[in-house]
Q: What sequence folds into this?
């Protein structure tokens, strides 16, 4: 993606969707999954990811599980019940936004 700034408003939705699909994930795993799914087109930096994860946790949408992997601790993030409900809301908002943008940018190619 040429303009990384475009995804910043979508970062929470991306995280919620991935956790909804994968039960629980750790930070680096999230960055690698996004990179894989977008074939390298979108790279989430730690500086963007961890504040978003902490905000979602503070808002009651994520819980954190700490597990020892080898000789280090790893934080796994998992959706709460509230987070699961909010994921559905955020995905609906995203779908509506994308349809609206498509109508504005290229009305002939509308998603409708």
A:
């Amino acid at each position: 993606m040429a303009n990384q700034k475009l995804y910043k408003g979508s970062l929470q939705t991306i995280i919620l969707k991935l956790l909804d699909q994968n039960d629980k994930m750790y930070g680096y795993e999230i960055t690698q999954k996004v990179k894989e799914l977008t074939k390298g087109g979108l790279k989430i930096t730690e500086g963007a990811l961890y504040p978003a994860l902490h905000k979602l946790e503070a808002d009651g949408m994520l819980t954190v599980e700490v597990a020892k992997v080898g000789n280090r601790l790893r934080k796994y993030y998992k959706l709460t019940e509230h987070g699961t409900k909010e994921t559905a809301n955020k995905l609906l908002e995203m779908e509506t936004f994308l349809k609206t943008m498509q109508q504005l940018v290229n009305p002939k190619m509308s998603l409708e």
